Description:
Elements: H1 14-17, E1 22-26, E2 29-32, E3 49-54, E4 57-61, H2 70-82, E5 87-91, H3 97-100, E6 113-119, H4 123-126, H5 128-139, H6 156-161, H7 166-180, E7 192-194, E8 200-204, E9 207-214, E10 217-221, E11 230-234, E12 239-241, H8 258-273, E13 279-281, H9 287-297, E14 311-312, H10 314-342, H11 347-355, H12 360-367, H13 377-387, E15 392-395, E16 398-401
Parallel strand pairs: 4-5, 5-6, 6-7, 12-13
Antiparallel strand pairs: 1-2, 2-3, 3-4, 8-9, 9-10, 10-11, 11-12, 13-14, 15-16
Helix pairs in contact: 5-7, 8-10, 10-11, 11-13
Amino acid sequence: MPYQGGFSPGIFPIKDFKRSRVMEIAPDVWMIEGYISSNFLKNPPSCNCFVLLDEDMVLLVDTGTYGFYREPILKILRRYRQEGAKRLVLMLTQGHFDHVANNDLILEAGYDDVRFLLPEVELTTIDLYNHWNNEAVELLEYYNPFRMLPMKGPTVIPNLVSRVSIELARAIFRLNTKILFRGIKTLADRAEILTSESRIKKQYGDTELWGWEVGRFFAIHDGTHSPGHTSFYDPKYKLLLTGDATLEINPPFFNGSMDACIDYMQRFRRLAEQGDIEIATDAHRSSIWTQKLQDEAKYDPLHPLQKVDVVTGKQDCAAFYDFFEEYFRALKAETLGILKRLGQATIPEIVEEFRASPNPYARFKNIIAFPKLPSRTDVMVANILKEADAPRRREGNRIIFTPPEKA
């Protein structure tokens, strides 16, 4: 059963969904275009979904949010079955709700051999309700995340949550996550678990990657956007699908990793420079929805490749990953630089300075903010401080950080 939740039931722009395209981005590699709005809570996003054929096996990567996307996915799956495909494998770039809400469609595709492969470390993410609520509890060790929610805008829930006690805020948050995830059946209980120990190493030129082989494809465990985040490489067409690793909102959750984002952008850039990647896209790249979001949110992209559906050619693919490497490095450097300049500070104090930063990357990050998009500067700051081992101490209700030694 697909997603049935949301804070404003019944207003989802179905006509907008029909603008989404089904594109063959390489021979027998299909991208079913998702959806992005300018209000995350009212109209949650849906990821791009991918269907890839390898002889008699079909690999489905991600299943999207809304029921609308089931038909175009099933149409491709059934066509390949009629043409002789015998095995269907579902894998996810991550366990977030906009990537998993239609997972049960694999049971309707008519294949006798159906598998759902899921990295073990992603089990805590695909447990949607507990993931979001446990995250809020973990953040309380760094700052009060409820009081960092926006005080302005059309969404009533954040306005209310930011004003109440932690206990009541947590209760409201739990209720609303139940509403948001209503109807989703992730099939996690039916997944075959991929352990970290079962990963193999692949070497491409001077670049080392770890992951799992699925037919000719290599599922790269990069741990960027979530602990079990996976990118997918097709060596036949030199194609890389990076899920949410190449996403401007990174890291949106405390269990993501800014350091992994930087690391893998460097690795992917090297692969492209060496000629191993000539086609690149991800789970939310879309010329249609990027332009719509740009118009509604009134911002300009930092790089022209942010606006394309698919990046092609060795040079442009390298430039694409180079941009994200530079972007992630700049956000981390700006955050740690603010803390160093202040000497000591709370996360809200660092966020306030970050929002006033003239750095173009910081300005862009501030524009694509919650609730327009699931981009939380406070969560990003907490993630960076956690990974940098910034010392912290509690003074009353304040949690104060000092610059890390290794920064």
